[in-house]
Amino acid sequence: MLPYQFPHEKLSVWQDSRQIVKQIYQITRRFPSEEKYGTVSQVNRASVSIASNLAEGSSRTSLKDQAHFTQLAYSSLMELSCQLTLSSDLGFIDDNIHQEIRIPISQMAYKLNALRKSQLTRINN
Questions:
Q1: Which of 14, 32, 55, 95 is most buried, with most CB under 10 Å away?
Q2: 71 neighbors 116 (Cβ within 8 angstroms)
Q3: How many whole angstroms separate alpha carbon 84 and alpha carbon 30?
Q4: Residue 105: pLDDT band by 50, 70, 90 thresholds?
């Protein structure tokens, strides 16, 4: 264990986002080589953006800013979901893999919405 934990490292949703990044990188390794600088790059960046926005948001002092970055993380998650659906449509990933990765994506969507709701509620209290 590290001697000090940064605020984002304490968020379970950030820990979950790390797992999604690992899964996405494993999946995109199997994409066609001609997609390396297109779809692969975009899918990988979207997954990393989820974790990065959570980290950046947790460093903000205002709850409004934190909620904004949580919303950005959710937006990146939806971008990732869309890109994976398109990748499935194009035959870059098979339907079973697509359905498997949708489970943690759906769970993360729920957690991000709950986190944002909590942040916004605390603003009004």
A1: 14
A2: yes
A3: 13
A4: very high
Residues 6+ apart with CB under 8 A from 44: 24, 25, 28
Query: Under a CB-based contact definition with an 8 Å cutoff, are residues 56 and 69 in contact?
Result: yes
DSSP, res 59: T
Domains contained in the chain, number? 1
| Measured CA angle at 109 (ends 70, 64), to 5 deg | 20
Q: Which CATH number do you get for residue 40?
A: 1.20.1440.60
> What's the confidence (pLDDT) of residue 56?
97
Both tokens assigned to 58: 């947790």
pLDDT computed for residue 2 by the predictor: 66
Q: What is the widest separation between alpha-carbon atoms in the chain?
A: 52
Q: How many CB atoms lie within 10 A of CB 49?
A: 19
Name the pLDDT band for 1 (thresholds 50, 70, 90). low
The model's pTM is 0.95
